[in-house]
């Protein structure tokens, strides 16, 4: 016991203490603030002035007093200064009095000394005027606007330019003050060159000992515990209200059905059949295979992009069933039971995901779901990318069963409306809702590769939040307008339908063009087609767009999403607020997600993000928010 006590490491620096931290990959020290200390890995988490946070060893940290002491010594009693002062009065290189050299001899000797220098150092150099610019980058952007080529800084080009400039400055006749200023700029450029080395070092540190999740979202343990019960209750309430003749909020609570009527084994079997059919389509060797973003250990996972093919195959299966007179409105008749079956399945899946995450390696845990609290990690997801072989459970559930199921449910509601109301054609409102949402789903599946850069894939673990959201919330809440129209038909005129269509088209145009602009810039910032875009360079090597849609508001894709959500609800009329639940919920969801994005971007980009926020002040709604 006593032996283990003496072996316990003692912490040297306290939280909040301002110290000097060594920049990884260099010998330069900068002022940092200690934010936390990990007792397991014995690493200090420090924060630089630009907002960058790194994990450093204790040997890479020095107190400020040590640096100040050295500085005072060098300024008061520098050996170089003492020697230089003596050389002015008694330089051994000066000739004695009465033995002055002739001007011709001194010139010849000076020329002889300069000649070998110019031959060995300057002769091989061929400089372009634009390459010898020592003010190209001094740790911060020269201006807030640059085109895409200025944002992509190449280390291979930067290094020769800096060495060339050093040689020229070494043998130039500039004043000493200007040379000192150039030296400072050169050292700052060296700092920028080591930025990528720093990132790799920090990634290796995180890989060895990932830190615990300290900032809890969604209300922490109490909030997540409440949401586990509140979300299923909300789905049940919305579906029961849609079944009422008068779905007014004044009729709360709706009459609850008998518990035995909420469950049917056949319905659960149909749901399982649907889930595993989509899993079969996912495993088919069709479509290209792409790599995702790098993980904390530097590894990149592979994903097969075949969601659109799965949608086409599903359409063929549904078409075959309809050809053989299968009653698809069976979904409408047992809609509540299907929702309960999906909720039960998502709960079982979430329990399995958490149990298997307990045996997952540390580097495979989600950065936002590693708090150590059971309820919180169960809700947000403990493991980042749970896989069974090459089958990625999170990626599969993100787009396949719920998103494609949403379209199938809408089609079932359309057929149910025709059957119940004895119509030969569906209503114009139902056609608009089905068409708008079909376009949205097809667009998501066609651009499936873009989902690999979203927060759901890169940051959030796979737990109850995403499992319930993908399998229950998306198909059964997003189809609320179609479900509402079956029991509450609403007729609209053609001019109103045209206006709603224009509104949806505007929202879709903003949504798609903004996402395409962002994805194209991420793939190849130097693309000549994107030369009109300007950006703010960041310490990570990436650029923040300040023109185009991303210079209009910070999240233009969210703006387009909200406009489309409003267009989906308008065909239901204004008799009840229930069909507008989706747009109200969606605004709350995107505002909350935008706040999460802001927090992560500020930590990641530091001062560059603050400059971006000054340039683009509005978050989602221009001139409002």
Could you explain how this protein is built, in words?
The protein is globular. It contains 23 helices and 12 strands. The two termini are 59 Å apart. Strand 11 and strand 12 (543-545) form a beta hairpin. Residues 1-8, 69-160 and 167-209 have low confidence and may be disordered. Helix 15 (393-420) packs parallel to helix 18 (464-477) and helix 15 packs parallel to helix 19. By secondary structure, it is an alpha+beta fold. The strands form 4 sheets. Strands 4-3-2-1-5 form a 5-stranded antiparallel sheet. The chain has a 3-stranded antiparallel sheet with strand order 6-11-12. A two-stranded antiparallel ribbon has the order 7-8. 56% of the residues lie in helices and 8% in strands. It has helices at residues 2-7, 64-76, 79-90, 103-122, 148-151, 155-170, 176-193, 195-208, 220-243, 265-283, 307-323, 330-333, 335-357, 374-380, 393-420, 428-446, 455-458, 464-477, 480-487, 494-523, 556-569, 581-605, 607-615, and strands at 18-22, 29-38, 43-47, 53-56, 61-62, 146-147, 288-291, 302-305, 387-388, 391-392, 534-537, 543-545.
Into which percentage range does the β-strand content fall?
A: 5-15%
Biggest pleated sheet: 5 strands, antiparallel
Estimated helix fraction: 55-70%
Using only C-alpha atoms, the radius of gyration works out to 33 Å
Q: State mean pLDDT (0 to 100 scale).
A: 77
DSSP E strands, number: 12
> What is the 3D shape?
globular
Going across the major beta sheet, what is the strand order?
4-3-2-1-5
**Poorly predicted ranges:** 1-8, 69-160, 167-209
Distance N to C terminus = 59 Å
What would you call the structural class? alpha+beta
